[in-house]
Amino acid sequence: MQSRNLSLYGQWIGIFCIFLSLALGIANLFHVNIVFVFGIIAIVQAPILALVEIPFLLKIFRIPDSVISFILTLDTNNRRAVFYALMAIIQWLSLTCKVTSLIALAILFTVAMFAYAGAAILGQEFHKSNVVATVNVGETPAEAQIRNVL
User: Fold this and answer.
1) Buried (b) or exposed (e) across 83-101, using 16+ Cβ within 10 A?
2) What is the pLDDT of residues 122-134, one digit of tens each?
């Protein structure tokens, strides 16, 4: 966080949105009107966000190459801003049916979008927190290397 790079802030907000999207999606499944559709959409958004914001998951799970190539195209500040803008618009549309807790998700998607857009406007490099916190394997003892791999 000391780098003051807005793309890192956007990534951490996005990681928080993964859990919030899943929780609020489940909570909004029990509405009688059309809001439950947006709850289902929020549940679907959670794994998509997880794949976008946590690149380690692309190595763990079997995912088609076309999905991986799409996710890798989102590795710029501009494209992430557009991605989060689309996610935010979907959740803001849920408010047309009924104002529910999905407004919190829409607000956080919007904040993440502004973080990535701000990084793009300021000309900051696109960073991921795993790139900033790299560990030089030659400097760590063997036990620590094994823990880092696990």
Assistant:
1) bbbebbebbbebeeeeebb
2) 888 887 765 433 3
